[in-house]
Please model this.
Amino acid sequence: MIRYLREAFSPIEDAVVASRLIRPAGGVRDVVLDTDTYNEIDDQYALAYLVRSQESCRIRAITAAPFYGKPEWKRPVRSDSPADGMQKSYDEILRVLRMMDREDLEPLVYRGSETYLPGPLVPVRSEAAEAIIRCASGHSPGNPLYVMALACLTNVASALLLDPTLRERIMVVWLGGHAHHFGTCDDFNCRQDIDASRIVMGCGVPLVQLPLFGVISHFSFCKPELQSLFGGKNALCDYLVDSTLGFMKQKFPYEHWSKPLWDICVAAWVVNPDFFLDRIAPAPVPQYDETYAFLPDTPPLRYVYYVYKDALVGDMLRKLT
Model:
């Protein structure tokens, strides 16, 4: 455990954390989706896929996360501030649900934090953080609430700080950081709120990490592939494809490109972890210079290192088209 986290969290033995890093198997599990849906276009795929996966996942809440893409980060600027990004994501969640005729899920959608953590151990109280705590009531280490985190970890870290006993009732499944051998965590989700990333990776909450570059970057699609697989199937698929093409036209001045659909992999790991290979590994500690530090006293996590693209694409086609 990162030493300063002991001010907020009691130490927990590595063996105890490892015993809680169970892969879901059979039955229907309770889930919360924490998403910066308007940030790019892949969160929408993840949301739609999760809604169509009720055979294995019971949605307890969908929470909007903040995001702010700074121009110097060389990415399309789709928000004016973290608060603006959160609100746009909230609106996009509702848009996708209405497109799927799932207005019944709208009462489960909550606004998240309007700022990043103001300090290393300072939570931001929000509807989202409180919803995560509330949804975890009644869960246990053997029956956790799965918190699917597709964004920066502000909402999740805030919930853990507001209720440190939450570690015993949830498992966080997060798209963030790069492959451990890269030695860097300079991805968008991790670096927006490094303090939140350090809390979730260091406090001992059961954590599944799906790294971006070097792992989930292989779940990538070129323009003709997306059009062939999903174009013309239904209004939802046309919206997803058109949004992807518009985003990529803004992001890259190239006629030919490929785009990883990062976020759907988080939902897919909870729906069916057999789509992936993973192992128990020591958690690296994100540093303020956006590098990883591998320290001797950090808790273990479940580290995803491979995705079976063909198997997951088959499930996507069955559910989305």
The two ends are 44 Å apart (CA to CA). The chain has a mean pLDDT of 94. Residues 82-99 form the longest helix (18 residues). The first strand starts at residue 29 and ends at 35.
